[in-house]
Amino acid sequence: MGFGIVIPLLPAYAERLHHATPSVAGALVGVYSLMQLVFAPIWGVVSDRLGRRTVILVSLAGSTVSYLLLGVAWSIGMLFLARILAGVAGANIPVAQAYVADVTPVSERARGMGLIGAAFGLGMVIGPALGAGLTLVGPRVPEFFAAGLCLANLGLAAVLLPESLPEGRRRPRQFKHPLSPGSLRAAAAPPGAPVLFAIYFLATLGFSVLYGTFPFAAGGLLKSWAKIRGSPEPAYTYIHSCINGLWAYMGLVAVVVQGGLLGRLARRVSEVALVRAGTVGLALGLAWIPFAGGPVALLLALGLVASGQGLAGPPLSSLVSQTAPGETYGEVLGVSQSLSAAARALGPTGGGLVLERLGAPAAYVCAALCSVGALGFALSLARRAADDHATRASLGLRRWG
Question: Max Cα separation, the chain?
Fold first, then answer.
């Protein structure tokens, strides 16, 4: 919810400090993800050694401080410092995923990962609308409210969250950086792992273009629709409210898909099939956004994007976790989240630059092509799984004969 409050307001923060351009807004999102690139695998490895609960508590405390810094930022440098700390603290996603992997059987893991995504989606439903309302109270109120949410979350976790990784299952405490060549080779060694990592990177790269560009692209669409109707150009406050509403809509779609639909689908179709369907939805939705001819078309395009991300993300995390033994869930999921963070660093920044120089259609077509690449890898993964199944069936027939 704190993330949902802040993300739509980043362009406004930059504008407050006289740096309101798509590239600066994209960089504010990108630096957050750059820190996740570095720290997601570190938190994952540390949680394999010290336990999940300790890392979650420390990261929640860091998030609280980051929102406080955001609230008192008086310069663009201070704004970036707050986002850097937020990225370090918010790199705890693989720890949460490892916690789910600790406590769920393989058959329920995609649903468990989906619940994390549904919780995030619910925060993105409530957060933007809440942030818009809080700005009416005061320009710094949303950041301090987000800090209060993190502090409350820290208190709840300290009281209610048990440890999921018993002492006997923890790895020895020698530390080797998870992004070192040896660690990366080990994470990519299991069959299918490199393909899964490639899908994770490309799908996230396409989706993350939204974070740095959507306020500008949506604002441009609203102005063009008004011009076509012969209406006056909409006011900034109206555009800002519409953008917040669209973020909330995407979050609502994510909640429905990941919190309800995904668990039912995972029992009926394979996780690979879900990944393929998700990347198709992402590609179609991203390509459609800049060409949406009206509000209904834009809602349909954003619904495809949110549904695609919701269908692909949790099954990918589940498939990655299945390539590793239980005591290394944090490390392997940390590597996958690190690649995802690299994509979230490149997507908003690169998308903002492309939008500035070539326009929104070019930015979103590039994003859609990333999703097409992810689909290509997903199809390759599906063929490999089919070949493996056929081989096992052939061996079984031979044994029977």
Answer: 79
